[in-house]
Amino acid sequence: MKKFVILIVAAMVMILSACGTEQSNGTEDGATELVKDGALTFSMTGQYPPLNFSKDGQLTGFDVEIGTEIAKRMGLEANPVTNPWETIIQGLKAKKYDAIIGSMTATPERDKQVDFTNPYYLSGAQIFVAEDNTDITSKEDLKGKTIGVIQASTWKDMAEELSDKVKGYPVDVNALQDLALGRVDAVITDKIVGVSAMNEKDLNIKPIGDLLNEDRVSVAVAEGNTELADAINEAIQSMVDDGTYEEISMKWFNTNIMEK
Length: 260
Prior knowledge:
Elements: H1 2-24, E1 39-44, E2 47-48, E3 52-55, E4 58-60, H2 62-73, E5 77-82, H3 88-93, E6 99-105, H4 108-111, E7 114-123, E8 125-130, E9 146-150, H5 154-162, E10 165-169, H6 172-180, E11 186-190, H7 191-200, E12 205-208, E13 215-222, H8 226-242, H9 244-253
Parallel strand pairs: 1-5, 1-6, 9-10, 9-11
Antiparallel strand pairs: 2-3, 3-4, 6-13, 7-13, 8-11, 8-12
């Protein structure tokens, strides 16, 4: 009888140990389970230069380099993949990839479906003026000035609150080109769009003042996967702390886009 009881107890211990091991491997408590062993698989559209795009058959851009560095600091290989934007969250929920590192703004609506890390860059509505303009240094200086914006955009609404002279454009690049030529006094557009145009189009313009609104662009992971989110946050912070983040940002934008 004693032997029988001992055998039952031993069996129960083995079962409990197995359950504990299963949880620690992330099968029941939301811990990290990677789509591809030994790799961080992260998604983007691949159609948003200079943030993510294809060149010579390879994905490249700021997002790709940030994702690659995150994977490296987690002791993993980087495995960037593409997915159409309209189904990119569904792909994450279907476990096609581990994360979205594709310039996704963390919004309350999206936060209902996924979990977001701390931001890996900040964007939002930014005022741009000609590089030699010293008269306009903040939004308060725009009263009575001609502001260029994309037609039917939220930036147009912002501009109309700051000046009674607002000029609409079909695309923001046209507005920024007119700004460099002195045809408008200022342009309000997305910070990253403006900074990219400064570099790619070699426009003599500059950002001034604070962002008029703030977009916190973050990494998205599956809802409840706090272990992966924490590991990514740790990797991003270490990149900021040792200067690697700024090096990558300067390479692509000639400025630190983590700063407002």
